[in-house]
Design brief:
The protein has two helices and seven strands, in the order βββαββαββ. The protein has about 110 residues and is α/β, with parallel strands linked by helices. It has one domain (about 1-105): UDP-N-acetylmuramoyl-L-alanine:D-glutamate ligase (3-Layer(aba) Sandwich). The strands form three sheets. It has a three-stranded mixed beta sheet. The protein has a two-stranded parallel ribbon with strand order 1-4. It has a two-stranded parallel sheet with strand order 5-6.
Length: about 110
């Protein structure tokens, strides 16, 4: 890969963040209705790879991702930013995701 002229080769994790916005964190046995739901791409390595590409570096991402819709969307997201995804391997398990609850006033 590096012989292809990449400035940055990133090895690491790719996630999909599932963010639910709630007016307050639920108490024990309480149901709280969310006001908004959002999917974002994440993972420390994935974020660094995209940001390096946006700053002008020629980047490549090396990772294992799930062979599900989240994994396919992750590849599309990398390609949208120009990140080389050739070394990414799809596995049978679904892509890991992170569930985040964000309070109305910004608390995570």
């Amino acid at each position: 890969m590096a012989s292809d002229g990449f400035d940055v080769v990133v090895v690491g994790s790719c996630f999909v963040d599932m963010i639910s916005y709630v007016p307050h964190f639920p108490k024990f046995d309480e149901t709280v209705k969310g006001t908004k739901f959002q999917l974002d791409f994440g993972g420390k390595a994935a974020n660094q790879c995209v940001m390096a590409q946006k700053l002008g570096a020629h980047t490549v991402m090396v990772a294992k991702i799930g062979n599900d819709q989240f994994g396919k969307d992750t590849i599309k997201n990398f390609k949208k930013f120009g990140v080389n995804t050739d070394p990414i391997v799809s596995k049978i398990q679904p892509l890991e995701n992170v569930k985040i609850y964000k309070e109305m006033y910004g608390q995570f």
